[in-house]
Specification:
9 helices, about 190 residues, elongated, mainly alpha, Tetracycline Repressor, domain 2, about 80% helix
Length: about 190
């Protein structure tokens, strides 16, 4: 792929993700993505033959960006617990109050909606979230606690997006930190009881 073609592809994926995050799945049509990107529908179809292919590629790109954001969030943090905590804050969309964080959370939730209906992003979304649960389980040493933590993080992410006045980034971080502190206490109590 030429440099110009790669730039056009990126422009299309940015437009698709933006529409998904700000307007919902029904607006992520080839025609609307083309208009958002300032391109013709034919230019979009040159890169993505179908809407499903476009949505799947936008999901893949969003997942790649999330992994990069996660690496950035934990880079330079030596303490394993602090790294785990920073990752949890990012997963819940409350690492900061930036518009970029809000858009990333909105995109993830749009992809969750697509996955819920068996749409084109479903296999990648399910695989990624299983991987997240696996990583949390490795960090906690308990799969069920990892599933509970992931449900908490998902819930905070939804509240951050839909009720930002009630669920501020700071409140989300505090709730996560309280839950992690409780998990740490429970684990310490279990270790002492042995």
């Amino acid at each position: 792929m030429t440099r110009d073609a790669a730039m056009t592809r990126d422009q299309i994926l940015d437009a698709a993700t933006s529409l998904l995050a700000t307007r919902g799945t029904e607006h992520a049509t080839v025609r609307k993505v083309a208009a958002e990107a300032g391109l013709s529908p034919g230019a979009v179809q040159h890169h993505f033959k179908t809407r499903d292919e476009l949505i799947a590629a936008a999901y893949g790109r969003t997942a790649e960006r999330f992994r990069a954001d996660l690496e950035d969030a934990v880079d330079g943090i030596d303490d394993p617990f602090a790294r785990f905590r920073a990752g949890c804050h990012l997963l819940a969309g409350c690492a900061d109050d930036s518009e970029r964080a809000r858009e990333a959370t909105a995109a993830w939730l749009a992809f969750a909606g697509i996955a819920a209906t068996g749409g084109p992003a479903a296999p990648g979304y399910r695989e990624a979230w299983q991987g997240v649960e696996d990583d949390l389980a490795a960090g906690l040493g308990d799969r069920e606690e990892a599933a509970l933590l992931l449900a908490l993080l998902d819930g905070i992410a939804v509240a951050r997006l839909t009720e930002p006045e009630r669920m501020t980034a700071g409140r989300g971080r505090d709730l996560i930190d309280r839950h992690l502190a409780r998990l740490t206490r429970d684990r310490d109590d279990d270790a002492e009881g042995r």
